[in-house]
Design brief:
The chain has about 200 residues and is α+β, with helices and mostly antiparallel strands. The protein has 3 helices and 15 strands. It has one domain: Jelly Rolls (Sandwich), CATH 2.60.120.590. Strands 2, 3, 4, 7, 8, 10, 13 and 15 form an 8-stranded mixed beta sheet that branches. Strands 1-12-11-14-9 form a 5-stranded mixed beta sheet.
């Protein structure tokens, strides 16, 4: 498996997509403060999914914010967006300045420890803007994040540092799966914000 050298902002995928890793974009002094504010202020709730016809309640917690009370369906369950908080708008602005893109919603994930992760999937729901940027901002524990090509099965991984930004766009979701692998090495929480564009 390739572990990408992330010294420069560039595409970490070798073909069939574009994933830019920016490294830390939040100042060291603000990283811990944002993390604690997000832990306290976000309306965290356990996620629900329907898998093989069964309703599953995840250990991971999620929350969903946006410009409007968007409805958004994934894993066969429908979620409703809450209005932006001041903090989320501030973070959205920082992300937009880095990627040069705009977003109208944010899905937040809280992984309490390394036991919690996310299985292989792509973000290709029909409500998402096609080929749009999905920008992922990370806080808390540093975790490995992996991509796997749907046909060649090639994998690429990156360590998502606290305060770092990763931008997935172009053909990425059509050709690559991604996941957050579980790990025994992490026993503290990770918070991840994924800014997206919904086309209702
Ligand atoms: Mn995803």
């Amino acid at each position: 498996m390739d572990l990408f050298n992330t010294d420069l902002v560039s595409n970490i995928l070798p073909y069939d997509g574009e994933v830019n890793y920016y490294g830390k974009i939040i100042s060291e002094k603000n990283i811990a403060q944002y993390y604690h504010q997000l832990l306290e202020d976000i309306a965290w709730q356990h996620d629900q999914a329907i898998i093989f016809g069964k309703l599953i309640v995840t250990k991971r917690k999620v929350s969903w914010y946006g410009d409007e009370a968007f409805e958004y369906t994934y894993s066969k369950t429908t979620k409703h967006a809450l209005p932006w908080t001041k903090l989320l708008l501030e973070l959205k602005n920082v992300v937009e300045q880095n990627t040069g893109e705009t977003y109208n919603s944010c899905l937040l994930n809280l992984y309490h420890n390394g036991d919690e992760g996310m299985a292989w999937h792509s973000d290709a729901e029909k409500d998402l803007k096609k080929h749009g940027s999905i920008a992922s901002l990370s806080f808390g524990a540093e975790r490995k994040f992996s991509f796997k090509h749907k046909t060649t099965k090639q994998t690429v991984s990156v360590i998502l540092e606290k305060g770092s930004l990763l931008d997935m766009k172009g053909d990425t979701q059509s050709h690559w799966l991604h996941r957050l692998p579980p790990t025994k090495k992490v026993n503290t929480p990770r918070i991840n914000l994924t800014f997206r564009t919904i086309e209702p």
